[in-house]
Amino acid sequence: MNVLGIESSCDETGVALVSADAGGGLPRLRAQALHSQVQMHEAYGGVVPELASRDHIRRVLPLTRQVLHEAGATLADIDLVAYTRGPGLAGALLVGAGVAVALAAALDRPALGIHHLEGHLLSPFLDEAAAGIAFPFVALLVSGGHTQLMRVDAVGRYELLGETIDDAAGEAFDKSAKLLGLGYPGGPALARLAEFGDEAAFALPRPLRHSGDLNFSFAGLKTAVATQWRKLNEAGGGSVCEQPRADLAASAQAAIVDVLVEKSQRALRDTGIRRLVVAGGVGANRRLRERLDGAAARLKAQVFYPPPALCTDNGAMIAMAAALRWQQGLAMPRRDGAFDVKPRWALEALDADPAAEAGRAGQPA
Ligand code: KG4
Ligand code: ZN
Hints:
10 strands; binds zinc ion; disordered C terminus; binds 5'-O-[(R)-(carboxyoxy)(hydroxy)phosphoryl]adenosine; 43% helix
């Protein structure tokens, strides 16, 4: 069973081929290709949806050709075409979904829409080094659009433990970086600058840290960083030296990381589960990994991270989620060419009523 996966929910076009056996055994990544639009959107300080869609259209077929070539496969070898059905930018999603469904129809194969966050949740299974990963686990999903703690009991069985009530962790990184005059996306740039700073230099808020639940709030941090940045500018007569700038970057990163670590620890304690999976772009953050490793060691828990290249959006996680669903008999692929996308789509609603889901496909989201 060869699954082609196409991801196009935001600003990365990702395509991958995964092979799976019906008898179980972990599906295997054969090849993957990715095109990031980050440079294209940089000038605008954020993702421009229309430009994203246009670029996905340009990239998706050449990337598909590249993946098949690298896997030593042909179009005829594809048994199932999976695509990201949501959540994400509507136009961007429609490109991936439209191409996937058209390709499937031309090949007389089924197509399957996958939830983007399910892709992230199951992405550690792409890492051959993560051989010890097993259900159940707690997942910390930290991306530009989401910050959630989930309990994952099996493929398709996800329970939301807590989530952000305002900004996502990646957004907090990006907004703080923007205030400090760093490029887009700001997360990696802020993390690099933070390496040279003192994270205790500025006392920034850690909202909801001791709220007793597993929710997050990051909107206040942006305001606090803006206030400190303005004070530094005023003190410097309109400019800020490198050291205080790095100190503020380090302090902002520490505030975000502190809360993520605190709540992840609490989730492990509350559920009694001793496996934590970290997924999503912010999962690439080195300081977060260091701190989570320390916390997990104290709790005698294991932490699994997808390789940094698989933390951010990619086609491999979509193909893997589709392959795992197919193995478990949870896939409901379609052959009738009908499809929809779901720009807003809660992960917990995923399998609430699969029959109804299938029946609704084809209607606008
Ligand atoms: O999962 P992702 O690629 O896209 C979605 O949002 O779905 O995550 C992107 C987010 C951005 O906010 C980016 O700034 C952040 O992940 N990010 C990082 C790092 N690498 C990516 N944040 C902090 N440290 C990093 N090293
Ligand atoms: Zn993502």
